Here is the input.
Amino acid sequence: MKKTEILIIGGGVIGASVAYHLTRRGAKDVLILERENRQGLGSTGKATGGVRAQFETDINIKMSLYSLDFFQNWDFDCGYEPRGYLFFATDENQFDYLRRNVKKQKSLGVKAVEIVDTQTISEIVEGLNCEDIVGGSFGGGGDGFINPLAVMRGFTTRAIAKGAKIKTETLVLSIETRGGKVIGVETNTGRIEAEKVVLCSGAWAKNLAITAGIDLPVEPQKRQIVWAKSETALQENMPMVIDLGSGFHFRPAKDFVNPRADTDGTNVLFAYPDANGQTSFDTNFDESFIPKVYERAKHRAPFLADTTVVREKCRAGLYENTPDHHAIIGGCEIENLYFCSGFSGHGVMHSPASGRAMAEIILDGKANFLDVSCLSLERFTTGELLHETAFI
Here is the structure.
């Protein structure tokens, strides 16, 4: 039997960020438990690495603003590239939605985000089929890309340097409580006592929360990405490109494991939210997804249709979805049991803000740098749900 003060379940980017922010505040007895033999084999390593402030809700915009500033000014190289995000609309309702969002984003301090017309869109992305595009929004001041694995490593190494520990190949089987208070966890390697437990296990959080008697509304959804290679280089500084209506999107590909590989500018990632992506823990890439995504690519960006699939680099990962597609950050009715889960595809980009918020909630009782009370678990019983349409 072992003992720790603060135990973090999950060594991905969220768990690592919580540890980083706790140790920055002086917490010493922090232990991260990772189920795999190394970090980054879960959703963090399967992410596309996009970061943006172009959201609909105040809380997502504010978390993005904080996180983008963090990535830009961090003294750890996280592969941040502010290449921009382009959303485009194919009907007037979608375009009105983007107009409203841009107005709100600007009011909250987002810089260099603007409404763009069809002609400008055709100039931002060469070769894009703009025949049915009525307009869009472009965030070129901070939106762009990061390396999710580098972000995770940065948080982890800095946390360990300040006293945190990480234990791999340790699967948490259950969370133990007594008298309405958390007392530890049971793992495949034995029991660990803990004064505080933070659940950062992504798509797997619900099943663990149940062992403590908490119904955590987080469901796994399989999402797939195709990696392809062009015969010629893509345009320089291509942004993330997203069809708001269909969810089809693409970006220049970057090898997160070996950033020095594939640097000739010919690699691209593209995907869309397959309607058949039901609740599932399956992370095997399904080759039937390839012709589906290529059908959309052929219509939207003919230069993508001429690319060659790199099958060994195609991947499938899990979104950790909540009913309103917003994270759950905070405590619950079990004293000293906390959740930092349910990011619905936005975990990597919001990891700096969520990690700091969680650390402040644990140490101070609430997040002081940003009010995240709207992300509490309680909202699902009070009915105060949030709404985000641009769920990509």
Notes: Residues 58-73 form the longest helix (16 residues). The CA atoms of residues 20 and 158 lie 6 Å apart. The radius of gyration is 21 Å.
